[in-house]
């Protein structure tokens, strides 16, 4: 039986099932590098403050570095009876360098140690996520650059509304991804305060130098209240909330990719690398990647709710409930990283069927608003213009014509204000390129936005 590092007060061994039930090593072992990184800085600080001898600190650091090498070489066996990553590493350290290893835990608790490890780990993972977001943004810009002449129908209520450039549509998702990156950076800013030194909940009696450790570990500062330091999981919740919004954006795009790649739309084609076939229908090319990401969005939402529910009504300070924060957090990290990486590659390789998009934009009376705007410029109040165009569309439905196909005689029956120049306003190109204001779909406006986006990314 392995002796517990906290077992001095106990006279009876832990029940084997309880040991397994309460252990977290199966999932928190992924934080090994950060646990060792924090422990090395802590050991160096202890010597620097003359809390332990320099010789002991050097032995501890060398031992921790050798353990890190063993783990990364696959030569470290994690033991469930040692509960978590912290105890597994500390037990191996003491086994390797003797009782000196027990000095490492001077001036700290597992409570502030885990709070440190999670922050260190999440900080690096957010930086990785920001890298994937950057790749996705580049994919959107690449598609926008390639489709400055591609006209598609813009929709409201999934009904044809007005013609837009496909480039403009891609830039909408670029803006969403930009906000996602901004939110992730905000999470980084708020979480980058070091909790180590809070002890179990009340601080420590040893003259530690928290600020020095924070500097060594790349934190912006230290947490200011020991109770909050060990019981705060706001940063994990905020990350999962930001991730939920990010996944919602991917899910919206996923839904459009699924529709656009269907036989009914034929707007785009996803490369075979991102699709699968049917076991029974040989003609099928299923958009499995967008479908999976659409499904995984609910999983990330669930992780957010799990964390919020976990922390609801927890009294200060640390409670064992909080061990349950890691699995939803880790799952969110893995899901977001995987979804972003695969979407960045898929969007970059996606091909656009320009003729089909244009054909769809030419149906559904997508230039009707342009006729109303034309009449307003002629002096008709918008509400009256709206009614005129509504009647015009009704006529088009009965005759099977689209608005640009109407003759002057047909236009004249609805309004005497319509002249020959109406045809300069109701083509798809005229409709698109009339919207030149910032944020509009005109080619000139979209070109400006692409240039602005690229300048932002360089800056």
Report on the architecture of this protein.
By secondary structure, this protein is mainly alpha-helical. It folds into three domains: about 5-105, Fumarase/aspartase (N-terminal domain) (Fumarase C, Chain B, domain 1), CATH 1.10.275; about 110-205 and about 225-360, Fumarase C, Chain A, domain 2 (Up-down Bundle), CATH 1.20.200; about 365-459, Orthogonal Bundle (Ribonucleotide Reductase Protein R1, domain 1). Helices cover about 60% and strands about 5% of the residues. It has 18 helices and six strands. The strands form three sheets. The protein has a two-stranded antiparallel sheet with strand order 1-2. The mean pLDDT is about 95.
Structural class: mainly alpha
- Cα end-to-end separation: 59 Å
What is the name of the CATH architecture of the largest domain?
Up-down Bundle
CATH C-level name of the largest domain? Mainly Alpha
Main β-sheet, spatial strand arrangement: 1-2
Radius of gyration: 30 Å
What is the strand content?
under 5%
Biggest sheet, open or closed, and with what strands and sense? 2 strands, antiparallel
| Count of helical stretches | 18
CATH topology of the largest domain: Fumarase C, Chain A, domain 2
Uncertain residue ranges: none
In round numbers, the mean pLDDT is 94
What's the structural blueprint in terms of helices and strands?
Elements (H helix, E strand, L loop, with lengths): L15 H7 L2 H4 L3 H17 L5 H19 L12 H13 L12 H37 L4 E6 L2 E7 H26 L1 E2 L15 H7 L4 E2 L3 H6 L2 H27 L7 E2 L18 H24 L14 H24 L1 E2 L1 H8 L6 H10 L4 H18 L8 H5 L15 H6 L9 H16 L1
Parallel strand pairs: 3-4
Antiparallel strand pairs: 1-2, 5-6
Helix pairs in contact: 3-4, 3-6, 3-8, 4-5, 6-7, 6-12, 7-10, 10-11, 10-12, 11-12, 14-15
């Amino acid at each position: 039986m392995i002796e517990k590092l906290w077992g001095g007060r106990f006279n009876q061994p832990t029940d084997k099932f309880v040991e397994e039930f309460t252990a977290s090593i199966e999932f928190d072992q992924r934080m090994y590098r950060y646990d060792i990184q924090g422990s090395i800085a802590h050991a160096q600080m202890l010597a620097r403050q003359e809390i332990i001898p320099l010789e002991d600190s050097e032995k501890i650091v060398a031992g921790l570095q050798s353990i890190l090498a063993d783990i990364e070489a696959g030569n470290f066996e994690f033991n469930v009876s040692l509960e978590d990553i912290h105890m597994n590493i500390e037990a191996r350290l003491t086994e390797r360098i003797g009782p000196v290893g027990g000095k490492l835990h001077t001036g700290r608790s597992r409570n502030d140690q885990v709070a440190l490890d999670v922050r260190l780990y999440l900080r690096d993972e957010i930086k990785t996520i920001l890298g994937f977001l950057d790749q996705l943004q580049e994919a959107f810009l690449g598609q926008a650059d390639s489709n400055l002449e591609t006209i598609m129908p813009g929709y409201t209520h999934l009904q044809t509304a007005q013609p837009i450039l496909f480039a403009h549509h891609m830039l909408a998702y670029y803006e969403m991804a930009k906000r996602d990156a901004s939110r992730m950076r905000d999470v980084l800013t708020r979480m980058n305060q070091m909790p180590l030194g809070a002890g179990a909940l009340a601080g420590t009696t040893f003259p530690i130098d928290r600020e020095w450790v924070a500097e060594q570990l790349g934190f912006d500062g230290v947490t200011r209240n020991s109770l909050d330091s060990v019981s705060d999981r706001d940063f994990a919740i905020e990350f999962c909330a930001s991730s939920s919004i990010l996944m919602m954006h991917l899910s919206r795009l996923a839904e459009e990719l699924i529709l656009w790649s269907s036989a009914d739309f034929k707007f785009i084609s996803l490369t075979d690398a991102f699709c699968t076939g049917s076991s029974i229908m040989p003609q099928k090319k299923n958009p499995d990647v967008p479908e999976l990401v659409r499904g995984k969005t609910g999983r990330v939402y669930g992780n957010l709710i799990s964390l919020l529910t976990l922390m609801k009504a927890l009294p200060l300070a640390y409670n064992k409930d909080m061990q349950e924060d890691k699995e939803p957090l880790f799952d969110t990290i893995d899901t977001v990283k995987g979804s972003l990486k695969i979407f960045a590659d898929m969007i970059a390789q996606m091909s656009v069927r320009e003729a089909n998009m244009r054909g769809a934009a030419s149906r559904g009376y997508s230039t009707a608003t342009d006729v109303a705007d034309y009449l307003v410029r002629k002096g008709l109040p918008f509400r009256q213009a709206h009614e005129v165009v509504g009647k015009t569309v009704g006529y088009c439905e009965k005759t099977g014509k689209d608005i640009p196909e109407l003759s002057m005689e047909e236009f004249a029956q609805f309004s005497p204000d319509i002249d020959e120049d109406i045809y300069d306003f109701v083509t798809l190109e005229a409709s698109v390129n009339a919207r030149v204001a910032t944020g509009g779909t005109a080619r000139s406006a979209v070109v400006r936005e692409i240039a602005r986006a690229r300048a932002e990314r360089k800056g």
